[in-house]
Structures are given as C-alpha cells and as structure tokens.
Amino acid sequence: MPASMIAAIRPDGAILNRLAGKSPDGRSLPFFGRPGGNLQQPPEVPMLYLPRGLDNSSGGQIHVDSDRWGPVKGKMVHLSFGAGRAFLLLRDEFDGWIQGAVIPIGGEFASGAHRGKFNPHDGQLYVSGMAGWGTYTTDDGCFQRVRYNGDKPQLPVGFHVHENGIRVDFLQPVKQDEVADPDSHFVQAWNYRYSGAYGSPEYSSRQLGLRGHDVLDVQSVSVLPGGKSLFLEIRNLQPVNQLHLLVATGREQEHDLFMSINHMDEAFRGFPSYQPIDKILLPHPMLADLARPVVSKRNPNNKAIADAKPVILKAAKNLMFDQTEIRLPAGQAVKLTFQNPDSVPHNWALLKPGTLQKVGEQCNRLISDPQAAAQHYIPSSSDILAYTNVVEPYAEHTIYFRVPSEPGRYPYLCTFPGHWMVMNGVLVVE
C-alpha cells in the first residue's frame, strides 16, 4: 500500500469505489493492496488516503453517537496509532462513490491510539492506546478521555466535490468579507504509487514521475445561502489520491482538510462568478499508475543499427529542445540519444512533413487515457516515424532509425500532453 488509508465497505458486503468488476477467480471480498497473482484488475479505491506525516499508522474509527458531542453527532472520529492523534472524519458519498476528509482535533495521546468508545454514562470519548512498533508517542500505554467542553467552535463538518471546486460546510456562519480573498486559502495535490515497496513517495499529479506537490489556484470564494457553507472555485481540480485544503474563515482562523478526490459531481453553478469551462476529466490516478508497471509498449526503435551516426539532443528549460533544427542526409542511419536534464518528463518523436498540428492535438487527448503512460505518450498514428520512450528527469534514452529517403522538413516534438506547442523542432533532410 502506498500510504495509510481508510476503506469503506457496506454492511451487506457491497464495495464502494470499485474501478473494475470481480476478478477472474470470482473474488468478491474487498482488496485494497497491490494486485498480485491472477488478479488482473486494480484494487478497490479507499475512501481516503492519509499523508505519512499526518498518520503513518492508523488505529480505528468511532461513530459519534453521543448527544454530549452534539455539534458533530453523526460524524466519525479517526484515531492514529502512529501519531497519537484524533481527527474528525467527514464523508462525501454520491453516484456509488465515497471519498473522505479528515480535520485534526487538538491534543495528543500519550501512547499510540488504537480503539475508542463513547461512554453511555457521561457521553464522552474514551481511548485506549499502547506503544510498540512505529509510533511517535512516548508512553507504553494510555487510557484517556476526549471531552467536548460545550464551546461553539468553528469547524468543518461536511464537504462535496464538484468539477469546478469544493464546497465546505461549517458549524458556524461565515462572513463573505473575511473569506473572499482567494490568496488567503491554499490548495495542493499529489498522488501515490502502488508497488512492492513499503509506502510511496509523493508524486506530482500533473507530471508523470516527478516527485512533489502541485499547487492549485483558487479562482474565487463564495459564501452560499444559509451562511455556513463556502464554495472554493478551483477550475483545474482533478481526481487525486491526496489533496490538502487550507481554508481561512476569519482572522487567524484556519482549517486544514486532508482528503482524497475519487469522484467529482457536475460543475456547481450557484455562485456569482460562475463561468462554464471546457474541461477534460482525467481517469482515476490508480488506473494510470497501475498501467505503468504492468504494461509497457516495446519501442521498435531500440534495436541497434550498425555504423549509425551519433546525435545527442537535450531537453532545455521552459519546455524547449536545445536544438530546434537538425540537418542530416537522406537515408542516414542515426543513433539518437535524448537526454533530459529538466525536472519534468519529456520524450522525442519524429513526424511526417506537415503533421505537427494534427499529431499534437492527438497528444493532448492522451491526457484522459489511463494507458497513455504505458505507451510512452505516443498516440496511435501512422504519421509518427520514430520516437523515444518518456524519459524521466535526469535520465536519457537511445534509439536507432534511418532518416527518411525523401528530402524535406520533418517536424519533431515532445508528445507529453501540452508540451508539443512549444517543445518542437524540425529535422531537415538533405
């Protein structure tokens, strides 16, 4: 598993968030780990991933059924064994999908929090814990109470994800003039990778293979009718394994929500600055991730050609090649090494004359194809004469091909979606 997670299973055994049907062996029980053996399908998608720095080893969940916790009755509490902390757990369920979000609750347990239960006599939460392997807590064990003191806190108690943003519901009213500045809120997203490794690095949701987070722009923030809900317009929102949303509701009052975006409702229109956008929704990141290690299209240009002329081409800054024109004689055998000193993945593909725009548009459409990574982001087209694999940052790939026998100007480009419009050049065949 790439990270700690919370999985949702219905009492009748039905599974939420299933990306595929039953496995060939008729398996019906939920499976949330890496596929193996004869499992020719992705695992079920968890309700929520938890960043390692937030919860490196989960404990359990408790349904809040106590009137003494009135403001959040009906919600859930999640416990972390690794961090010795408690979180309010929210659920967003629709269209047969479920996704979750956690909000940290103040305070820490003396030992790794395992199980909790509401006491029917005083209505408060009691938590038992113990130390051992993989907890950052200090004591061998603990038995502690988490008590609601009767104050009226400002706290997120619900959320709903749309194609163009996220609605967050609060306990107390929110004032428009205190939340209207988009720069007072912060959104970042990242994905994980399933593998045989213990845990996963955090990867960009935009650039294949690049480690790090992507900051998403908040276009507008609107208080909705009723005064207790905010809609944060985030036009470039996509399904992601992990999203960190920091919402400011007043002076020195901020709320951290850590959520997974598994499914998105249609665009929300009920706010003043709504504008329709033309948007391509990406496949669930698990599909693209699992396609990479399982399937890889063999590059037909890997086979060596004797006496090939060495040519080195590099990626440059600002989505450019270091050479935008290469001149070679017709029929020349070439050993082309594409080097990528850039911080994002790139590749190189040679095209027939006059096909740059046509193939480039095909490349852009690959963004919605979960198999695109396994195919090195090369569209299925007879206009492509030769290509390299996608080259990860600070790596290189060598291919062999013969220069076309017909003189002319043959365009080349990076086929990674969106790159080709500036990252292109021409091979002049003489």
Quick gist of this model?
The chain is mostly beta strands.
What does this structure look like?
- The chain is mainly beta and 430 residues long.
- The protein is 6% helix and 36% strand.
- It has two domains: 4-289, no CATH class; 309-429, Cupredoxins -  blue copper proteins (Immunoglobulin-like).
- The protein contains three helices and 26 strands.
- The protein has an eight-stranded antiparallel beta sheet, with no helix packed on it. A five-stranded mixed beta sheet has the order 20-26-25-22-23, with helices on one face. The protein has a four-stranded antiparallel beta sheet with strand order 10-11-15-14, with no helix packed on it.
- The longest helix has 10 residues, at 285-294.
- The termini are far apart.
Q: List the uncertain runs.
A: 23-27
Instruction: Give the structural class.
Output: mainly beta
Q: What number is the mean pLDDT?
A: 89
Number of helices: 3
Write the element-wise H/E pattern from the N-terminal end onward: EEEEEEEEEEEHEEEEEEHEEEEEHEEEE
Main sheet, how many strands, which sense, barrel? Answer: 8 strands, antiparallel
Number of strands: 26
Shape: elongated
Distance between the amino and carboxyl termini: 54 Å
Number of domains: 2
User: What is the radius of gyration computed over CA atoms, rounded to a whole number of angstroms?
Assistant: 26 Å
- The helicity comes to under 10%
* Strand order of the biggest β-sheet: 3-4-5-6-17-16-12-13
